[in-house]
Design goal:
mainly alpha; 11 strands; 44% helix; 9% strand
């Protein structure tokens, strides 16, 4: 929305809840945004005219404002202990009432307050919510929203440790940073009347609000770890591309039209509008994300694919394999798996047989349906003999002066392999699927692998012959 309208996109770290603060969390958030390409115009590491952008560094702004609200009668000091509040909520729940503060400290006299201040070591500041009438505001997605003030409690705006709550800090910062639009999850919709009341008490003009649909699991409950939800950076580690993740997230609750699934960043900026956002929860489908990521991977050219793939191969292949991996060899392998891959993290498991020296598999896998051990051994022996005859040959240019350009061609290629092995199935009285299935297991250790002839060509003559010999020994052991 900021890019579409020519506005500013601001990052602000809301770290006022010290009890829940996690070391490194802010850095992880910023790294996640950078990975997605969500570059910010103001905020940490960038600066701006309205900093600082960590709320924990703005305490000297919030505390005087909270004091001013108390002095003007919009807020009051609450001296209730955590134990009293816990007992109060337990009793309310026992009576099946909504848990909320009972306003015990709201109407204390000055004398009562002075007495409590001498007895109690700490206090919080609560907003004095009007007891009657309604609070109305316009949500850009939902239209007019109305709350009865009687349904709201006297919420805390400044905690005993001197830190503001979300309610006060965001209202103050949104005003001071001249925020025009707030887009947030619809779970904050019920907090918005509190914020509207704070804006009014402080004499601020509220920004425009749009409360976005929540992301749901496939069982339509709020997305959580039990649905497999994880952090953005973990998706990066699993081998998802930022372009695919950005595309996928953008379509959770928003759409360009009724059919477009793949849409790039520039298109998103050009076409984005609040009008296309729905208000019902959006389903996070891991299957769709994997499909979309695979689509983006298949759009990469070989150099791009190789650059992204090599770190995952270096990290995921067995340590016994010689490192660094040969880039040219990798570039022969990658086209064989590019159509099948869903994440870069799949690559080591899909391609390890191209790198390891000795395969480990159950010899019974060599015996295809309809074959016996004897017929399988025969197929392997004849295939090995036929492949053994595929040797390099010399092509001599027709013009004597071009003898310096004499070229040696490797005859062990896709075409020669197919020419040698496809007729062999008929000669042996086998179906091509039976012969090729046996050879696939022999040279890859897998029942499913990339196309056989291309795979064998990349593995090379000596390695294929060695593996077929090992398969023969496995069956005769």
């Amino acid at each position: 929305l900021a890019r579409h309208t020519g506005g500013s996109f601001i990052v602000r770290i809301e770290d006022t809840d010290q009890a829940r603060k996690v070391e490194g969390a802010a850095e992880s958030i910023l790294e996640s945004l950078r990975w997605l390409g969500l570059d910010w115009d103001e905020g940490p590491e960038v600066g701006g005219d309205y900093g600082p952008y960590f709320q924990s560094e703005r305490l000297d702004i919030y505390q005087p404002i909270a004091k001013k609200l108390v002095e003007e009668g919009h807020a009051y000091l609450c001296y209730c202990s955590p134990q009293r509040l816990e007992e109060m909520r337990a009793e309310q729940m026992r009576r099946k009432e909504p848990p909320r503060y009972d306003r015990r400290c709201r109407n204390f006299s000055q004398g009562e307050r002075l007495k409590l201040e001498g007895e109690v070591s700490s206090s919080v500041v609560r907003f004095k919510t009007p007891l009657e009438e309604e609070t109305r505001f316009c949500d850009l997605l939902r239209g007019e929203v109305i709350f009865d003030n009687s349904s709201l409690d006297d919420f805390v705006i400044l905690k005993a440790d001197g830190y503001p709550t979300y309610h006060l800090a965001n209202v103050v910062d949104d005003h001071m940073m001249e925020i025009s639009h707030i887009l947030r999850a619809d779970e904050w919709l019920s907090s918005t009347p509190r914020h509207i009341l704070l804006y009014r008490a402080l004499g601020y003009e509220p920004p425009q609000f749009a409360h976005l649909p929540m992301i749901l699991g496939e069982d339509r409950s709020k997305l959580s770890k039990r649905h497999g939800a994880t952090s953005l950076l973990e998706y990066r580690e699993q081998g998802y591309l930022p372009e695919a993740m950005m595309n996928f997230l953008a379509l959770l609750g928003w759409s360009l039209d009724d059919k477009t699934e793949i849409i790039g960043r520039d298109q998103l900026i050009e076409h984005f509008s609040l009008e296309r956002i729905g208000v019902t929860g959006a389903i996070f489908s891991q299957e769709k994300l994997a499909w979309m990521n695979g689509t983006y991977l298949r759009q990469l050219n070989l150099d791009e694919f190789s650059e992204k793939a090599i770190p995952f191969l270096e990290k995921g292949l067995p340590a016994s394999i010689s490192h660094p991996l040969p880039e040219e060899y990798i570039k022969q392998i990658l086209p064989l798996v590019q159509e099948r891959i869903k994440t870069l993290g799949d690559l080591p498991q899909l391609t390890d047989f191209f790198f390891i020296d000795e395969l480990s598999y159950d010899g019974e896998l060599l015996i295809q349906k309809g074959l016996t051990k004897k017929s399988t051994l025969e197929a392997l022996r004849v295939s090995k003999d036929r492949l053994d005859k595929l040797v390099p040959r010399i092509v001599v240019p027709p013009e004597p002066q071009d003898l310096g350009l004499m070229v040696q061609l490797e005859a062990f290629n896709t075409e020669s392999l197919e020419g040698a092995l496809r007729p062999l199935a008929e000669e042996l009285g086998l179906k091509t699927g039976q012969l090729f299935g046996t050879l696939r297991v022999a040279v890859t250790g897998r029942t499913t692998a990339p196309p056989l002839f291309q795979t064998m060509a990349v593995l090379g003559r000596e390695r294929c012959l060695k593996r077929i010999q090992a398969a023969l020994e496995k069956l005769t052991a």
